Amino acid sequence: MLKRRTVIFAAACATFCVIAMSLPRAARADAPAPGATTFTFRDGDGIAVFVRRWLPAGTPKATVLIDHGLAEHSGRYDRFARVLNAAGYAVYAPDNRGHGQTALPGKLGDGGHDPWNGTVRDLAQLTGIIRTEQGGRPLFLFGHSLGSAYAQRYIELHGRELTGVVLSGTFGVVPDLATVISGVDKAAAGDGALQKTVAPSLFASYNKPFENRTGFEWLSRDPAEVDKYVHDPFSGFAVTNEYVDAFLRGFAVEWDPANEALIPVTLPVLMVSGDTDPVGGATLSVKALADRYDAHGLRDLHMTFYPGARHELLNETNRDVVMRDLVTWFNEHMPAP
Question: What is the pTM of this model?
Answer without folding.
Answer: 0.91
